[in-house]
């Protein structure tokens, strides 16, 4: 039982990657009583971790050397490979028997390869990407989709329960990433549909606030609309999840679907709309900024 555990009996955690998601997630582990040593490239994020009660490390090697569990949360496959491999990477510096929980959203194959290479070093890996965005990270209500061995999942579960609400083992290594890719497909198509509805409603002279409230109470309602309604209403595109990252994820899902022979006709169109928004300089905005693309197509100057 969590209440009877002390910090000394809980596993020691190293956290690599303290961005929009990683910072609040690592802080939730500190609040749950875990000892967290972190490393990231931005000094202000290290200072934030220290202020929250964590320990800032000067390198990956320093962060992971005494850790029982290493959690990684970086943007994409190249960053996962950069922090995992090489003389300064996790695999060369983590202790034998350590468990890596990679919470980044990457290609399923990168996860499979990491697990295989780690096994040769006596290190275990699960892939555990998340859905829920910045708000979900802050509130510790993320959905966490996991790929890996049952025993490793069972060991990681108390840690994951401090970060999320729905936590499911989806299959072997890479399965978490496959489910995350499907999640990103659904989210992007949903945001695009909402954005088209917003432009249609506004051009029709309807009260947008009232319209979105009633739509969200019926079959058209969704977590996406609940989370992004205010973004649409206020044209507030401060990033909770950047277009740049959703562009990366749409590349993962379209490539993975092609490899298994699954057709994604609507997903392919939305992937191109995300790519076009990025090409127009909006890559740093929240993915709800798909609204800007629909507005441009509808004749607005944005």
Automatic annotation (TrEMBL):
The residue ranges of the 6-phosphogluconate dehydrogenase NADP-binding domain are 12-171
> What name does this protein carry?
2-hydroxy-3-oxopropionate reductase
Active site per database record: 180
Q: Name one GO molecular function term.
A: NADP binding
- Annotated ranges, domain 3-hydroxyisobutyrate dehydrogenase-like NAD-binding: 174-293
Write the record's keywords in alphabetical order, separated by commas: NAD, Oxidoreductase
The cross-references to Gene3D superfamilies, in alphabetical order and at most eight, read: N-(1-d-carboxylethyl)-l-norvaline Dehydrogenase, domain 2, NAD(P)-binding Rossmann-like Domain
Q: Which biological process annotations from GO are given for this protein?
A: glyoxylate metabolic process
